[in-house]
Structure formats: structure tokens, C-alpha cells
Design a protein that fits this description.
Strand content: 35-45%
Number of strands: 4
Strand order of the largest sheet: 2-1-3-4
Shape: globular
Radius of gyration: 13 Å
Structural class: alpha+beta
Order of helices and strands: EEHEE
Helix content: 10-25%
Largest sheet: 4 strands, antiparallel
């Protein structure tokens, strides 16, 4: 069974991602915010697991001067 995550930005863009297991979904949800810059939020939902919520970015951009 595959699990489909729906990611939606607050400007309306929607993307779906298929993951192979519950563990893969959990790993994605725990690591994806570290890839988003601070101040960026994405709605996430997985109907088959009953998951929905908002992920907020935790990545602080480095100043490469």
C-alpha cells in the first residue's frame, strides 16, 4: 500500500507525494520542515492515515558572503 501526502502552500499550489509506508510518511513529516526556510508554512494531509496539519519551516538561511 502506498500513502499519498497532499502538500498545499498558502498561495494555493498543491503537490502530492506517494510514499511506500507509514514509517516513510513519519520520516518525511519530521524532516521536511528542516528543508523549509523559517517563515514558510505548508499544509499537509494524508487521508488514509487521518493526518492533517501545518508544517512550519525551521531552516535558517546561511549568509554566504
Amino acid at each position: 500500500m502506498t500513502y499519498t501526502l497532499k502538500l498545499e502552500t498558502f498561495n494555493g499550489s498543491v503537490k502530492t507525494i506517494s510514499l511506500p509506508s507509514k514509517g516513510a510518511v513519519a520520516q518525511f513529516i519530521s524532516t521536511y520542515p528542516t528543508q523549509l526556510p523559517v517563515g514558510v508554512s505548508v499544509r499537509v494531509a494524508c487521508d488514509s492515515l487521518g493526518i492533517s496539519g501545518t508544517m512550519r519551516g525551521t531552516l535558517i538561511p546561511s549568509n554566504s558572503n
